[in-house]
Amino acid sequence: MASLKVSVVGADQEVWSGAASMVVARTVEGEIGILPGHEPMLAILAEGEVRVTAENGEKIVARAADGFLSVDNNTVTVVAGNASLVK
Questions:
Q1: Per the confidence metrics, is the pTM higher than 0.90?
Q2: 3-state per-residue secondary structure call for the chain
Q3: For the structural domain made of 4-85, what CATH number should be given?
Q4: What tens-digit pLDDT sequence spans the chain (87 residues)?
Q5: Where are the chain's structural domains?
């Protein structure tokens, strides 16, 4: 099964990266879910959470604001001015 290569990056650090089966993020146009095979896209993030389901089933949640989300070739990159993991 295909997977996503995901990176969540803040202005000063990488918050999380790894293989995932799904990413859900809030954009200025609404919430979006990304699965392997998603069409290439670029979206502006709205303040909120980015939820990642890692390949092993672990749920990772990060707060992100002031940035964008890019999808291309099963690679999802979230770049935010402010990003941090939610404990």
A1: yes
A2: CCCEEEEEECCCCEEEEEEEEEEEEEECCEEEEECCCCCCEEEEEEEEEEEEEECCCCEEEEEEEEEEEEEECCEEEEEEEEEEECC
A3: 2.60.15.10
A4: 689 999 999 999 999 999 999 999 999 999 999 999 999 999 999 999 999 999 999 999 999 989 999 999 999 999 999 999 997
A5: 4-85
